Amino acid sequence: MSAPRRLSRIVFFGTPEFALPALDALEAAGRRPVLVVSRPARRAGRGGRLAQPPVARWALDRNVDLLQPAGVRGAEFLVRLRDLELDLAVVAAYGRIFPRALLELPAGGCVNIHASLLPAWRGASPIQAAIAAGERKTGVTTMFMEEGLDSGPTLLQEEVPIGADETAGELSTRLAAIGGGLLVRTLQALEAGTVEPRPQCAAAATHAPMLRSEDGIVDWNREAEEIAWRVRAFEPWPGSRSWLRGEAVRIVASRPLASGDGVGDPGDLDCPGAFLGCRRVEGVGRLPLVRCGGSTTLALCRVQRPGGRQISGLDLVNGLRLTVGERFGTAA
After folding, report:
1. Exposed site from 18, 116, 188, 291, fewest CB < 10 Å?
2. How far apart are the C-alpha atoms of 243 and 224, rounded to whole Å?
3. CATH number (domain holding residue 33)
4. What is the domain-level CATH number for residue 226?
């Protein structure tokens, strides 16, 4: 492919913490954006004060021009961007679908940083989806945007292993840092003409829809390994929770036990959600066990009661004097 002119006039679209390493990487490479676009401030906390998103704070701290439009389709907003004569738009977790009029504004197009190995896990929650599916690897992809959802041609990719106990929050931090470096390498490759956009295989695509609060409700009919994957995937949000004695207990960390764990199935203890008592788990210590689907068993490592701090699963059992056979449920 032929090399374009230097990509010096860049607009950056982003909102959450995940986008900050990309901004830092651009600045370190001498490519500070001429404009940053972020979602509007939102009210947060008990006082309901307006809180700026992380990307907006980054721009304000550095006196970089900042826009926070309610949407990206307004004529005034598009004219403002057109007047900047942009070389490129960079997008990292902005949270809006771009119309064709915006996609065609920058001379070099719009490059998105996506936290998966596309075409795997297109959509709003690729990190959580990969962990919840039990994937052992994921990665970061840079791609040219088009009107479809994460369907544009890919540029560069970097593969990353997923840690056995890694949560979505922890993995997001790692992928964000990797994405910053990958973005700079992508811009260099575009300028040098050494990267060829590759169309995605639509038939191989998987999808990661936006998470909802109710996704965090533990379904004890699932097998223990899948529940453990989901606990990691939904930490820190929406969190995994189950009801016990009328209160929602958050499960922060868990571990599935291998088959043949020695936990019997007397009477109704084989019912999903039943508390089986406590056993010593190798390498961890004494933990409470809960029956899951398929007669599998989940050990509760760390939990949190409403309004309380995180405690061990054993402290929960001792504090409540939980008896064998009591049930964790899906509602109060």
Report:
1. 188
2. 17
3. 3.40.50.170
4. 3.10.25.10
pLDDT in tens, 215-274: 999 999 999 999 999 999 999 999 999 999 999 999 999 999 976 554 555 455 789 999
- Closest by CA to 151, choosing from 107, 130, 120, 182, is 120
Q: Annotate 50-74 with b (16+ C-beta within 10 A) or e (fewer).
A: eebbbbbebbeeeebebbbbeebee
- How many residues are listed for the chain in this entry? 332
pLDDT at 266: 47
263 in the same domain as 154: no
Which residue has tokens 């996704």?
Answer: 215
Whole-number Cα distances in Å, 223 to 45, 47, 275, 291, 321: 37, 41, 15, 9, 26
Q: Strand (E) positions, 165-324?
A: 207-208, 240-244, 247-256, 275-281, 285-291, 297-304, 310-312
> Is residue 258 classed exposed, middle or buried when 0-12, 13-18 and 19+ CB atoms within 10 A define those classes?
exposed
Asked if residues 179 and 162 have their Cβ atoms less than 8 Å apart, the reply is no
Show the domain range for 276. 213-320
Please check whether residue 273 is in contact with residue 327, taking contact to mean a CB–CB distance below 8 angstroms. yes
Task: With beta carbons less than 8 A apart as the criterion, state whether 282 and 331 touch.
Answer: no
Rounded Cα distance between 95 and 16, Å, is 9
Q: What is the pTM of this model?
A: 0.95
Q: Measure the CA dihedral 173/175/176/177, to 10°.
A: 90
The Cα–Cα gap between 159 and 326 comes to 43
Over residues 171-226, the pLDDT tens digits come to: 999 999 999 999 999 999 999 999 999 999 999 999 999 999 999 999 999 999 99
